[in-house]
UniProtKB/TrEMBL annotation:
It comes from the Bacteria. It holds the Pfam family MAPEG. The chain crosses the membrane at residues 6-24, 60-76, 111-128. The keyword Repeat does not apply. Gene3D superfamilies: Membrane associated eicosanoid/glutathione metabolism-like domain. InterPro entries: MAPEG-like_dom_sf, Membr-assoc_MAPEG. One of its GO terms (cellular component) is membrane. The lineage of its organism: Bacteria, Pseudomonadati, Pseudomonadota, Alphaproteobacteria, Rhodobacterales. Keywords: Membrane, Transmembrane, Transmembrane helix. This is Putative MAPEG superfamily protein. It comes from Litoreibacter ponti. It is found in: Membrane.
Length: 129
């Protein structure tokens, strides 16, 4: 397994952790009856639950591009010290992003997000050159 695939697996597990954190806080906020209900009406989560939900959704979006980058790098046999470093930066940024988002650390949340996004873009570019 390449380093990039290993990091992708860890990033997927981070998504699982984020989902669990969001689910627990959302259930505490709206109650189990609402959580297991049909959700015909939109539920607006606030506070920590809402921030965890938005951070999780943001990771879903970023994980799509990161997965593409890892697949391209791996299938084209373009793994390099640069792509491995980018993968590590992506994962570290995504880990740091969760508490930064939950705590509302502006502008650091955006700086952390940019580090993860930039490393993904750099991986894609590295696969092309």
């Amino acid at each position: 397994m390449t380093t990039e695939l290993y990091i992708l697996t860890l990033a997927a597990l981070l998504q699982v952790v984020q989902f669990c954190l969001y689910s627990v806080t959302a259930n505490l906020q709206v109650g189990p009856r609402t959580a297991i209900g049909p959700r015909d009406k939109k539920i607006e989560l606030t506070g920590t639950a809402g921030r965890l939900q938005r951070a999780m959704n943001n990771h879903f979006e970023g994980l799509i591009l990161f997965t593409i980058a890892v697949v391209v790098v791996t299938l084209s046999d373009q793994s390099s010290p640069l792509t491995r470093t980018c993968a590590h930066v992506y994962l570290i940024a995504r880990i740091l992003y969760v508490p930064a988002y939950v705590q509302g650390l502006a502008p650091w949340r955006s700086v952390i997000w940019l580090a993860g996004f930039g490393s993904t873009v750099l991986m894609l570019i590295a696969a092309l050159v």
